[in-house]
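Our preliminary data section would be incomplete without showing what the modeling component actually yields. Below, a chain of 274 amino acids is followed by its predicted structure, encoded as tokens that our downstream tools consume directly.
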Amino acid sequence: MIDIGANLTSKAFARDLPAVMDRAAAAGLEAVIVTGTSLGASRAAAELAAHGGPVPLFATAGVHPHHAVEATGDWLAELRALARRPRVAALGECGLDFNRDYSPRADQVRCFRAQLELAAELRLPLFLHERDAHDTFAGILREHRASLAGAVIHCFTGTRAQLDVYLSLDLHVGVTGWICDERRGGDLVAAAPAIPAERLMIETDAPYLLPRNMPGPPRDRRNEPAFLPHVLSAVAAARREAPATTAAATTATARAFFRLGLGLGAHKFHDSLP
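Predicted structure:
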């Protein structure tokens, strides 16, 4: 399995990241993509990926819509330099979030458009975020789609109609533990069979979205990459296929989408952690 989105630079992992990665290896993860959500977090993600571990790490570099108001001065030049680092596999997390509006919507749109243009320039795939902004998000993406190398809608939680729009834009789709949530994941369970195997990937979005289908969840409610099998099992059940089939398909899709070179070998994470 490949976890295409884990926030491993979060302070939630500060105390025990080596143990977290050992558990990820034991759970059968082939790679983890460390999410960059701001210039600082993207720098940390790239540095973490460069140091490796028992599970190969890659990173994204981007400015999340929550941080769009911070994108001033030479921010785009700095992001361009980060995106060119060796183990940065995608640009993002970027997009629009009209649910919380931590940044003004005008800043979100400005920042999103700039990152779409940068992704086209660098020919990097995109790691996208959208919440309560579907129509505006899809409209902007439609303007730029022809120039983009590829894009995945991360942590998709929408309806079948929204999924159809994203598939019409030739997007890949990332599914998290939201699908394990019997209270609010019903639309996603219903939509999951419609995602083509070659467009589907799985992720934890750790430390968030702890899968509700796991027995004996941790007392601190922290999610981590080792819990990806619970997402996998829920996705497989929704699609009425064997977990091994879902695992093989989503892993192959992630390898191709992020252009991962995984024959690099792992080294001792404990000795290399920055």
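The first strand starts at residue 2 and ends at 6. The radius of gyration is 17 Å. Preliminary results of this kind motivate Aim 1 of the renewal.
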